[in-house]
Design brief:
Structural class: mainly alpha
Radius of gyration: 21 Å
Order of helices and strands: HHHHHHHHHHHHHHHH
Largest sheet: none
Number of helices: 16
Distance between the termini: 47 Å
Helix content: over 70%
Shape: globular
Strand content: under 5%
Number of strands: 0
Length: about 425
């Protein structure tokens, strides 16, 4: 049996995993007002925020560790089994939230969730490097990133609807089961890499592999024999540090919003759980559109003859320039509606930039080491996000989020500087002489 367009089915399943990933993680924030009232009735709003921030920081730190761990796991056992392991563990961890009783039990289950959910991102980067030619990678990454955005869009309304019929404990069980169901089509369809998949047509296989010439430095047509340094040599390249620093700077911006949107809307504008559920989804629409736009723009420019270097830098710069004025406008948005619209534009710019930053490992190195570099970059990104999450807990006392937005703007500039300063030419690297 031969299957036409199999690579799009693969990226579609990876994007679906990202949707489930975000439903699972966002359930905690969406349900927090009800959880806090039930488990911590003696505390005020700042006390609830401190506990929420602490648990969220534990989640992100575990997520950081998981990025490094799963980057290696995906390189060791492959994309198929790596995704199966990651999503099985995080789904079980989500279900276990139903038996949490307080700060420590929630922290343990959120830690397991973060550790396993982290596999989604190095896994997606590796799947992208394996299944797509260079010119389609930014668009494929955009499809995957849009899965995260769609997850954010649907998570809050889904939780809001379920909250009418189920307790917060039952909701964790329901959303946790989604990931276990995802395993069925994944294991059935993704039987191997493009070189060995029995369903892949010869035409599509040829298209994929010949389109990965940026990985074939000796010109023999063998994608797997591109530059594949050891971890030590990988970290001696300044371009690797450009990827790591850019990721560490830009990724906390995303977490600033996905962690704090529900708390911000509750604290600043007085929205309840149902009002949050039907407002907090809008910024993710901007993120979804930005993920598609960044990928399509990059694909269009490369197809038109632009170099990968020129394309990546132009699109990343554009995304950062879109974000910067939005941070200024969020200092005084006026209404909750204005705030979520500004956030939507800001996350549009974020996704335009981040999709192209996430393709840099596969632009620079062989597929064998892409997961490792993506894992290091993701780990640095989540450490930065954990630090910012914990900091926000203290700098927003009384509902003043302006300091957090100022920091977000600075981080966008740092990411831009890392790409331009440490990646002088985004192209396949060669061994140091």
């Amino acid at each position: 049996m031969r299957f036409k367009g199999l690579r799009w089915w693969v990226v579609g399943l990876v994007a679906l995993a990202a949707i489930i990933n975000y439903i699972d993680r966002q359930a905690f924030g969406a349900l927090w007002p009800d959880i806090a009232k039930e488990l911590f009735p003696e505390m005020d709003g700042d006390g609830h925020k401190a506990i929420y921030g602490s648990i969220s920081t534990v989640f992100i730190l575990s997520y950081a560790a998981g990025q490094g761990l799963f980057g290696k796991i995906f390189d060791w056992i492959g994309t198929r089994l790596g995704f199966a392991l990651s999503i099985a563990v995080w789904s079980i961890a989500t279900i276990l939230h139903a038996v949490a009783q307080g700060l420590y039990s929630f922290s343990i289950f959120r830690s397991i969730l973060g550790l396993a959910e982290a596999g989604n991102w190095p896994g997606a980067a590796k799947a992208n490097a394996e299944w797509f030619p260079t010119k389609e990678r930014a668009f494929a990454q955009g499809i995957f990133n849009s899965g995260a955005a769609i997850g954010g869009i649907v998570a809050y309304p889904i939780i809001g609807i379920l909250a009418d019929f189920l307790s917060w404990k039952s909701i964790f069980i329901v959303v946790g089961l989604l990931g276990l169901l995802w395993l069925l089509p994944w294991l059935f369809i993704v039987k191997g890499t493009p070189k060995k998949h029995p369903w892949l047509s010869e035409e599509e296989k040829e298209y994929i592999l010949t389109g990965q010439k940026n990985q074939d430095l000796d010109g023999d047509g063998n994608y797997d024999e591109g530059y594949n340094p050891t971890t030590g040599k990988l970290l001696k390249h300044k371009e690797s540090w450009g990827v790591i620093i850019a990721s560490a700077a830009i990724d906390p911006i995303w977490w600033l919003f996905i962690v704090w949107i529900p708390i911000y809307l509750s604290e600043v504008f007085g929205l309840n759980v149902k009002e949050i559920a039907f407002s907090a989804w809008l910024p993710y629409v901007g993120a979804m559109l930005g993920a598609w736009a960044g990928g399509l723009l990059a694909q269009n420019r490369i197809t038109a003859g632009w170099s990968v270097d020129k394309t990546r830098k132009m699109v990343i710069t554009l995304g950062c320039l879109i974000m910067l004025p939005c941070f200024f406008l969020l200092k005084a948005p006026g209404t909750a509606t204005n705030a979520v619209i500004i956030m939507a534009v800001l996350l549009f710019g974020f996704q335009v930039a981040i999709g192209n930053i996430q393709t840099l490992p596969s632009d620079l190195f062989s597929g064998k080491i892409v997961g490792t570099l993506s894992g290091f970059a993701g780990m640095a990104a989540k450490l930065g996000a954990a630090g910012l999450t914990l900091l926000v807990t203290f700098i927003t006392t009384g509902g003043n989020y302006t300091p957090a937005f100022i920091i977000g703007g600075i981080l966008a500039l740092v990411a831009l500087g890392a790409v331009w300063g440490l990646c002088p030419k985004i192209a396949p690297l060669k061994p140091r002489q």
